[in-house]
Amino acid sequence: MRLVVEKMGVDALEIVVVNLARSSERRRAMEQSLAPLGLPYSFFEAVDGRAGPHPLFAHYDEHKALTRRGIPLSAGELGCFASHYILWQRCVSQDRPILICEDDIEIGPSFLEAYGIATGKISEYGLLRFSAHRSRRHTLCETVSRNLKIVRYERPVFGTSCYAISPQAARKLLQTAETWFEPVDLHLDRFWTHNVPIRGFLPTPVHHAADADEASEIRQSSMPVKKTSQYKVRRLAYKLWSEVRMSLHNLRYTGRWTSSN
Prior knowledge:
Oligomer: single chain
Radius of gyration: 18 Å
Shape: globular
CATH architecture: Alpha-Beta Complex
CATH class: Alpha Beta
Structural class: alpha+beta
Number of domains: 1
Mean pLDDT: 90
Strand order of the largest sheet: 2-1-3-8-5
Distance between the termini: 29 Å
CATH topology: Spore Coat Polysaccharide Biosynthesis Protein SpsA, Chain A
């Protein structure tokens, strides 16, 4: 794989694994998965939302979360957003693309091939998802090998398990993340707001380990919320506005969407 990357004439993508300090078992599991591949990787100590306040939590607007989603962000969701936000900042400040992985993933047999392709194409695409938590209709961007194609998704696919990102795309995500009111994976998917299309590999080279020992940090809050009729109207209006914006961005692809198998 090192020879493949060198032939491309570009630097290898650094793999950054988001890992909570208290999740030592997950760290060991990721080391066992990544070390044999011979690729550059490092661990990033994730922000633990349940450990207490963090300066970045000042971005969070609970009122907007309630009026637009009807539910507040949990401590884990805040920590997850902060962790990815910091890595986007690093991507921009170092002016180098990175491959961000969470520590509860399963690496598939096409990962090495996708890694080499992403190394050469991330500057062109901005964002390349290696995983998707939902099957969605998509349109073909290009067939990159016998086993893989790059597609653009019609709708959000959710999750932040594994994705490559360029400095240009990271800058757009940061510029539209001054206020946090939804989980980071929803922000990542909101292409009609930040103009970073949802593109990724199919079949997906990485899968979320649903049977991991610890629950994912990206999840809905279980806190009960009293939803007033006023908030219901606002949520409906925001949902309709989002659907309209998404549809307008997708107009050029009308008739080109195909279903995921």
